[in-house]
UniProtKB/TrEMBL annotation, chain A:
Residues 7-218 form the Carboxyltransferase domain. This is Allophanate hydrolase. Transmembrane segments: none annotated. Signal peptide: none annotated. One of its GO terms (molecular function) is ATP binding. Keywords: ATP-binding, Hydrolase, Nucleotide-binding. It comes from the Bacteria. PANTHER family: 5-OXOPROLINASE SUBUNIT B.
Automatic annotation (TrEMBL), chain B:
GO terms for molecular function: ATP binding; hydrolase activity. Pfam families: CT_A_B. It comes from Aliidiomarina taiwanensis. Keywords: ATP-binding, Hydrolase, Nucleotide-binding. Signal peptide: none annotated. Gene3D superfamilies: Cyclophilin-like (2.40.100.10). This is Allophanate hydrolase. The keyword Metal-binding does not apply. PANTHER family: 5-OXOPROLINASE SUBUNIT C, CARBOXYLTRANSFERASE DOMAIN-CONTAINING PROTEIN. It comes from the Bacteria.
Length: 233, 309
């Protein structure tokens, strides 16, 4: 199937331009957005301050003193068409394996997720392990990776009352998303397990495949697979 | 002996801030920086400091600092009933300090946040290019881990004895930090998803700043604005974005905002309005007025150029 990508511009703020993409291969968008982010930073560094990808959107922060909105849009359109035409060698997404301890004290909502979806806790674990997830966005807090690709039967609404304190490493489900909390903090996701892993390090060296300066083990477009580590009793 | 400022009392909330941490939002790192950037920039300007110099942000008061050096400091922002060695000192001016001088901030007379700059800036380590303190991200501040200032912290700065004249802002240039505030809104790309009634409610009513507000976001309370139905996937959110969650009570995202948000947005406020908003204590009322993008950019351009940003 030939991939077709289209996009729209919209004004998000005084110095922020949003690009919203649609594609008939939506799963590939995060990786495309990461490539486009690099191209923008390389080619438009004199006018662009920051570029933030998430799911199917890319927010471009620009310096309104050095570029007019219309000219910026033309330059961005040009970069997108270049990426499409030259068909940059599709960067191979990294596959990160994340060991998880499911249930017990680490997964206080495992039973809830099972009950709401009419599954047994073991079936929930099985389905959570079965998928390869795509890192659709990094955000909320440093290194927090929003993973898409959750089994439809695991889709579970957020807790009605968020927890005041979610322990670092908690593996959660919220709606169609799953993720690991990099640090402790408040949160309303359903917690089903725990993964002991570092998700953010300002000193880099956390994922050599992304270079010595990589501060996070994954970037947008990469893949994550959970593996079962053995349960607590 | 090292020179600097010692924290006697940290007060309610005192942090180190600079222009903020840019270029890492794609990893979830918020820019941070002073909640009222205009006042922070003026503090440096009164001392001929570069705009990148670190300043202390004192929120709601109670902070006490002891000088361990001879230098000049500038205090701007809200009037937090500052005394120097027991003598009242009005803000928006620079003045000499010598070793042993005690700067004591009381509680706000008007405004909500004061800024303290020192000649040459505070010498503090940068993390990802900035010392801006963001507790939630565990980044910045004196120890680099997002901790706010603590009693007995020693904040190094250079001694200064060069010829300088103390300066004072003429009253007419001091920002008005206490009268009723109008926030200028650049309507955003989701504007058409809100109903005409929702917009009418938004434009015609007063909203009160609640006690749950902080420099991550100002949470407002007032007549509910009906949000559009349907769930959005999280999107990157810019400074000043006005999110409307299910309860219809708007949240305005400020300097320490999360990088992504999933609520529908009416638009975003002019950053200059946001800096003013950060000076209003909980309980203050705000109103909204629309502003075109061109006008907003012109105002921001003038501000950035003035401070050499």
């Amino acid at each position: 199937m030939h991939k077709t990508v289209s996009f729209d511009f919209s004004v998000a703020g005084v110095d922020a331009l949003l690009m919203t993409f649609t594609s008939n291969a939506a799963d590939d968008l995060p990786l495309l957005l990461t490539q486009l982010r690099q191209q923008i930073l390389t080619n438009l560094s004199d006018v662009v301050v920051d570029v933030v990808p998430a799911y199917s959107t890319l927010l471009v922060y620009y310096d309104a003193r050095t570029v007019r909105l219309y000219d910026l849009q033309l330059a961005l359109e040009h970069l997108v068409s270049e990426i499409e035409q030259t068909r940059l060698p599709q960067a191979q997404p990294l596959l990160l394996e994340v060991p998880v301890v499911y249930g017990g004290e680490h997964g206080p909502d495992l039973e809830r997720v099972a009950a709401l979806n009419k599954l047994t806790p073991d079936q929930v674990i099985e389905k959570h392990l079965a998928a390869d997830y795509v890192v659709a966005a990094l955000g909320f807090s440093p290194g927090f990776a929003y993973l898409s690709g959750l089994d439809e039967q695991l889709v579970t609404p957020r807790l009605d009352t968020p927890r005041k304190q979610v322990p670092a490493g908690s593996v959660g489900i919220a709606g169609v998303q799953t993720a690991v909390y990099p640090t402790a903090g408040p949160g309303g996701w359903n917690l089903i397990g725990k993964a002991q892993m570092r998700w953010f390090n300002v000193n880099g060296n956390i994922q050599l495949a992304h270079g010595p300066d990589a501060m996070t083990p994954v970037q947008v477009g990469d893949k994550v697979r959970f593996i079962r580590q053995g349960d607590t009793t | 002996m090292s020179t600097g400022m010692r924290v006697i009392k940290s007060g309610i909330h005192a942090t180190l801030q600079d222009q903020g941490r840019y270029g890492f939002q794609h990893l979830g790192v918020t820019p941070g920086g002073p909640a009222d950037a205009v006042s922070a920039n003026w503090a440096n300007r009164l001392l001929d400091n570069g705009p990148e110099c670190a300043v202390i942000e004192i929120t709601a008061g109670g902070t006490e600092l002891e000088s361990h050096t001879h230098s000049m400091v500038a205090v701007t922002g809200g009037d937090l009933n500052l005394t120097v060695n027991g003598q009242p000192k009005a803000p928006w001016r620079s003045f000499w300090v010598k070793p042993g001088d005690v700067l004591k901030f009381g509680y706000p007379r008007y405004g909500f946040r004061a800024y303290v700059a020192v000649a040459g800036g505070f010498q503090v380590p940068n993390v990802l290019g900035s010392c801006a303190t963001v507790a939630r991200n565990k980044l910045g501040g004196l120890t680099g881990d997002g901790c706010h200032l603590q009693p007995n912290d020693f904040i190094p700065c250079a001694a200064s004895s060069q010829e300088r004249v103390p300066r004072q802002m003429p009253d007419k240039y001091v920002p008005d930090l206490h009268s009723e505030l109008t926030l200028y809104v650049i309507p955003g790309y989701q504007q058409h998803e809100f109903s005409a009634e929702a917009w009418h409610t938004f434009w015609t009513n007063e909203y009160e700043i609640t006690t749950e507000s902080d420099s991550m976001g100002a949470r407002l309370h007032g007549p509910a604005i009906a949000p559009p139905s349907g769930n959005l996937l999280s999107e990157p959110v810019c400074y000043g974005a006005i999110q409307v969650p299910g309860d219809g009570q708007p949240i305005i995202l400020l300097q320490q905002r999360q990088t992504l948000g999933g609520y529908p947005k009416l638009g975003s406020i002019l950053p200059l309005s946001g800096y003013n908003l950060a000076q209003r204590p909980p309980g203050s009322k705000v109103r909204f007025q629309p502003m075109g993008l061109a006008t907003a950019q012109q105002q921001m351009r003038r501000y950035l150029r003035f401070f050499g940003l």
